[in-house]
Amino acid sequence: MSDNESKWMNLEPTIGKMDSFFGDRSIVVSSKTLEGIKKNPLTKDLYMTDIGFYPAARRHFRKRTNGIDEHILIYCIDGNGIIQINEQSYLIEPNCYFVIPAHTPHKYWASEVDPWSIYWIHFGGSKSQYFEQFFNHIIKIKLMTSARIDDRINLFNEILTTLELGLTQENIEFANLSFSFLLATFFYNETYIGTKGYINKSPVDKAIFLMQNSLKRNLTVHDIAAHVNLSESHLSKVFKNKTGSSPFDFYIGLKMQEAIRLLTNQSMKIKEVAYTLGYEDPFYFSRLFKKHIGTSPMNFLCTSKDKPTKEFKRRLRNL
Q: Reading across the β-sheet that carries 106-110, which strands appear in turn?
């Protein structure tokens, strides 16, 4: 970083914030409406109080000596700006977001040379505290064809449009339920990308992709590690850190999910499901199923139907 950049990052603007920006959009919920949101069981645990979009926001400047009651998410899509907390300055560039925690003194401002374009949200609720790991630091969203950035921006705009149509109860509920998904696109970005079929290049995601396409085989940890060019011990470590599970347990879990799908379609016997998933011994398959699902395949079938049909009962007798 050059001396000029360092100076700019720590130089608080001497001019005030402009009241509006050409093409800006914003919704601020009134205190009366907010009371209703906090009482509504659908919205009270995670809700927005303000949302907006400021394009090329020259002279955008905020200084709050005591912070505010809600967290502030700032998502930069163009230009750059500075967020300052506890005398530490963070340079916010395109495809970066930053969450300022509630009740935290802060300042932020747009670059005079290349002012940022930002989407922003103030949000709160009891569930918001569970996302603290994403607060107080810059998070960069990688710019690639699979990043789904346009999808996220479209969702932002849909929420804004919904609220601009009027703060009816239905609109407020729709917007806040959509907001939960919007947060997920930030905080669970890799999963958000993966839902469209894009495969991350990390060893863990490559390993999971291999598992998902090998449910009819019996992969070993050695097979998986070799596929991603890692040692078994290294794979196990990084896999556990990301998923909370060992590679083997995760793989078996995927197999058991597939077993549930096959069992509930009412066209396969337990032993046929076992063979389909690569288990020659149906009793071994049943033990694995009970370990991971919490009940045997037979009990699962019996309890998965409230009122079994005669055909279903006949099939159970022939399992």
A: 61-64, 106-110, 81-85, 88-92
